[in-house]
Amino acid sequence: MKGYFLTRRVVAIVLLFAVAAGAIATWQHYVPLLRNLSYLTGWLLLAVILFLTAYNGRKKLPFLPLGSSRAWLQLHAYVGWLSVVVFFAHVGWRWPDGWFESCLTWMYLVVIVSGVLGLLWSRYVPRRLTSRGGEVLYERIPVIRRSLQDRAEDLALRSVAAARSSAIADFYIAHLSDFFRGPHHYWSHIVEVRTPWNRLQSKLDDLSRFLNEEQRLVLGQVTDLVRQKDGLDYQYALQSSLKLWLFVHVPLTYSLLILTGLHVVLVYGFSLGAGFRP
Amino acid sequence: MKDQLPPPDFDRSRYERPNQDWICGHTCEGRPCRLGPSPGGVCRANAECTPWLETKPGETKGLWKCTRPREHGGPCAEGPGPTGTCGCPIIPCAPERTLRNLRGRITWAVIALTVALLLLAIAGPWKWRFIAPARVSDPHRNAGFNQLAQERFGQPGCAGCHPAAEAGIGQWLLAAYHSDPGLLQFSRLAQATTRQETRMDRENCVACHRGFERHQPDVVHAHSCSACHREHQGVRMAPPSDVGCAHCHQDAAQLASFASPSKSPSADFDPPVSAGAVVFRTERPSQGRTTAFRSFADGHPEFAARSVGRKDPDSLRFPHALHLGTTVLLGGRKLECADCHQPDSTGSYMNRISFAGNCRSCHALQFDPFNPELTLPHGSVRAVVGIVESLPLQYVDLARRKGLRQTDEINEFGRQNVAKIRQTLGGGEQLLRLVLFTPDPRQVDPKLSSERRAQLAGCAYCHEVKADPKDIAVVTPPVIPDRWMVGGRFNHGKHVQQGCLECHPSITASTAASDINLPTQASCARCHSPQGGAPAGCAICHSYHLFSRP
User: Structurally, how many domains does chain B consist of?
Assistant: First the structure.
């Protein structure tokens, strides 16, 4: 199965490069021949952007027989790459000078770069999540966190009665209650830094030295819950990052479409329609 | 080494709906209520269940039973109250938006912000700078242009060229709607190989840029000014690219359509030249210049002046080869090109060759071998005749110039020299014929050195001299062109690194003034080609426009 996906990706990439090279060659061929080539590449680019935007609409209309979301995502990625070629052919492989056209270019680049980074991130993060384990539905994370919190609190309280010592309960209040209350160490998990976890583990180890056998058993159970909570935070951090990059990519896509609309009006109104007398 | 965590234990039978807009406000505490908020985001929770009244046979009151589902803990320990109220009331929450809903709202906010910023940008005083695709060239943005636009079009600034500009976005939309080709006329866009002349060209560009004729007289005025002159490219308008030229000159079929004999007189095709300039004219081919070619280095026709068999019709006798050889020396050294050919004040072309400036130093027009101070005047046969016929007076004048003061001495000097020249060269008419018609002084004295031969040369040495019954002789005036190739520009100043012979190699073998020693197209293309590295664009040499003739 892995071989199939690898082959498919290689074929798609080769195809993408072939199409891009063909597009560049076609553009170069027609540059000296067609005076309005930039208009044609502009319309092509707009069509490509609309197709890319349609993926968002496709997700909102799951009941329509428009193909699988997976197929759309594949097309979205490859056509997105192709749009880069069309874009630079449209602008003539130069950086625009005007304010508005610079805005348009920047907007396109932010959208395309956010898309590329999102694509790479969405290829990279699932592997990390799988290798770490503890996979969970993102929407379920608060409930599971609460469950872990309740179980840890219960263990801490029961340890007081069982061992006639408040050491574990005190430790829980001092170091773990806040940890279980909500997500922690977001950026550490994103960049895969284990320092906060090691620090907490060290504190648990320190406490363990002063406990008797029965208390150590309880602390072991608490430690297990702490590890699960840390895994849950890891899942939360990475899964939320998979959703949050769309907060840049999607809204700016619509901004790009608005700017493109004005660009069309300006280009036609001030160039091909320049002779119009109000 | 990281340890692999097992999946957390949770109820997999519960179904999450991440596409909903709202979630229970208790979710972040990990205790969302069973009902969840309404689609409008209103908390609907009041109790964990709706108790059910179980009435057994024979009972009248019945017993309220908790109906909390098993996945939410099952029936509660407290049970419903005696009036059927749930024993586990839920604290109302403030429902929260899901990420999906939040993203939608942010999207709308960004859209609104974008529209607002755009409106602000195109409504503010900086709107022209904002929408301009790039800076307008200096000539189209200075105060002079604005004043002209105000006078001619009633509006300064952008409206000088774009009439719809000042009227606002509504008119921009109308202008876009009325564009030609229209907004969705893709086939016309694809078929247009050049930008057609627009109303803006006719009413705006040409209104100021008067006097520009558009290329050849037979070519219809079909091209837009902007087809070649791309505005909004920076401080200076970029020079026209070769694309516009190639549009016609690469297209053999299109050129063939122009090849029919012109309706315009041939003179109309002659490039205009500055007043007084002498130019080397070549006749226009009957089919016009309709050879298709791709670039200067690839197929450009040979220069008309260098076409096969063409000769300079000038009657002057001037062998370049002789002057550049070892026979002719100036101050003991060989002549160089620069001894005669000096650039003009612009450095582009060479100054006109003149007898006084270039020839006299060697060709002094002496006629008396014993008195080299006596020379003939240049430029007038009558003056020459006058000198020869007044020889005694000329010797008297020469005697005075030599410092003789006594009349006897002066008269004696005159008599002796007149006698001497009559004895040597003959007197009167014979001397005059010698001076006017003898092409080579060695015919008179074969022992003359080359230097003396040049100094003692008469009119016919360099000029075509014909006998004339009225004026004795008529000298055909030489015609030395100031410009040889008027269809193109050339700047000698930019080619000083090349030696003269690199471009004019045939000059050292040229034995007649009728030889045309201009560079060939191929010799220019050696450098002006992609291989040569020098610019090879059409506009380097040619101008598209023919300026109005007076």
Answer: 1
SS3 B52: strand
Residue B16 inside a domain? The answer is no
Residue B450 within a domain: yes
The one-letter amino acid at B412: E
Give the Cα separation of A102 and B221 in Å (integer): 35
Q: Is residue B97 part of a domain?
A: no
Residue B418 is part of which domain span?
Answer: 358-475
The dihedral region occupied by B215, where left means phi > 0, alpha psi between -120 and 50, and beta the remainder, is left
pTM to 2 decimal places: 0.69
Q: What are A125-159's pLDDT values in tens digits?
A: 999 998 888 788 888 899 899 999 999 999 999 98
- Residue contact A146–B186, C-beta within 8 A: no
Residue B123 domain flag: no
Determine the residue type at B11.
Answer: D
CB contact A36 to B (< 8 Å):
yes
Closest CA to B201 of B183, B181, B178, B228: B228
User: In chain A, how long is the greatest CA-to-CA distance?
Assistant: 94
Q: Which of residues 49-88 of A touch B (CB under 8 A)?
A: none
Give buried/exposed letters for B512-550 (b at 16+ CB in 10 A, else e). Answer: ebebbbbbeeeebbebbbeeeeeebebbbbeebebeeee
Tell if the CB–CB gap between A276 and B99 is shorter than 8 Å.
Answer: no
> What whole-number distance in Å separates Cα of residue A147 and Cα of residue A142?
9
Could you report the per-residue pLDDT of B81-123, keeping only the tens digit for each? 888 888 888 888 899 898 889 999 999 999 999 999 999 998 8
Q: B118 — contact with chain A (CB < 8 Å)?
A: yes
* ipTM of the prediction: 0.89
Identify any residues that bridge with B212 across adjacent strands, giving them in sequence order: B547
- Helices A2-30 + A37-60 axis angle, to 10: 150
A144 inside 8 A of chain B by CB = yes
